[in-house]
Amino acid sequence: MARPQPLDPDPEPTARTVRVMLVDDSLVVRSILERIVDQQPGLQVCASVASAHDALAFLAREPVDVVVLDIEMPGMNGIDALPHILERAARARVLILSSNCVEGGPAAIEALALGASDTLAKPGRGSFSGRFAEVLTERILSLGQQQDYPAPVPVAERRAAPPVALAVEGDQPLECIAVAASTGGIPAFANFLAHLDPRITAPILLTQHLPDAFMEFYAKQIATMTDRRALVAADGMVIEPGHIYLAPGDAHIVVVAHGRRKTIALDHRPVDNGCCPSADPMFGSVAEVYGNSGVGVVLSGMGRDGAAGAARLKQAGGTVFAQAPESCVIWGMPGAVAKAGIAAATLNPDAIALMLGSFLPGRRPA
Fold first, then answer.
1. 348, 184 in Cβ contact below 8 A?
2. Which fold has domain 164-359?
3. Same fold for the pair 18-144 and 164-359
4. What angle do CA 24, 29, 34 make, to 5 degrees?
5. Which of 25, 70, 280, 305 is catalytic?
6. Residue from 48, 51, 98, 182 carrying the catalytic annotation
7. Catalytic status, residue 300
């Protein structure tokens, strides 16, 4: 069994140094990655191991900022190991580096669904230098410097929250559901959909932070979970009941009213929070077009995307829900909404879906 190898004899790294663990069964690949990472100022390889079991053993003893994880390994593969690594590694971010992670492919989506922060396709052995080395170190630095989020909640502690009462005045209609999600949002949205009353036919707009290349595959994956039709949003697309519209990875999704007819527009303008797609323009347009018949749902994710738009939706009379911390991979986006007093309730995704039943005529939550 390979042992974790301390690769830098220097003293403890400074607070700005990103500690990186490499997990790959190929000694050749690990050696190449070690050279790439250690040559980048601000990065330090703290361990290089050949298996998921060795990675978990090291994480039990030492802190790590970023784990670079292969998928195809003997014994426990990277996908099976990912939830255990996230739980053991506390604040560490995981970058999946695998030849299976072609952009938009099922392995990449599955890894992101399980909580990986990013994925990158592993090149052929003769192509590790040049542009690949630049992209790899840029992504590791970016992930390692994102330390302004709470630690992931251990899987064993993610218990369902009990339903709470929600006051819905009269027969307040539900005409649009806008959902924002990032890291950990894919399984959260799946849980939400699984518990949504089929009698709720309001269209769903979804802003999930993913690269554009992933969106078509993700839309197909969503379509297998529900009777609703799932589409990647396009300019001028008419918004219809029973449909789910995903923001593409390179534009914000907004609603435009043409009398009673509503269509989608794609907005490419930068937003203050730097996200693209961003949930703020989406929530803002739902506030303007739907007012008190719009609902916003903020699921697991890092940062504050959606907080400004959700505040506008609340001011317009709409209702906003935030995912509870015990079920989040990262309670950043929903935490920002909850702490600002914008959310009508903070619940797990299944409970949020059940609460939307209160908008059905004659229904009130139990």
1. no
2. Rossmann fold (3.40.50)
3. yes
4. 90
5. 305
6. 182
7. no
Q: Is 209 a catalytic residue?
A: yes
- Per CATH, the homologous superfamily of domain 18-144 is Response regulator (3.40.50.2300)
Residue appearing with tokens 């790439």: 36
- Per the annotation, the verdict on 258 as an active-site residue is no
pLDDT the model gives residue 127:
67
Distances (CA, A) of 157 to 27, 31, 44: 37, 38, 32
pTM here is: 0.70
**Residue whose C-alpha is closest to residue 75's, from 99, 55, 97, 58:** 55
Q: 256-290 pLDDT, tens per residue?
A: 999 889 999 999 999 998 899 999 999 999 999 99
What's the CA gap between 253 and 266, in Å, rounded? 5
Amino acid at 187: P
* 69-90 pLDDT, tens digit each: 999 999 999 989 998 998 888 7
Choosing from 48, 51, 117, 209, which is the catalytic residue? 209
Give the rounded distance of the alpha carbon of 97 from its chain centre: 18
CA distance 116 to 133: 20
Question: Cα dihedral angle (61, 63, 68, 71), rounded to 10 degrees?
Answer: 40
- Residue range 146-172: mean pLDDT, rounded: 43
CB burial string 153-185: b at 16+ within 10 A, e below: beeeeeeebebeebebeeebebbbbbbbbbbbb
Residue 359: closest CA among 161, 176, 162: 176
Domain range annotation of the chain: 18-144, 164-359
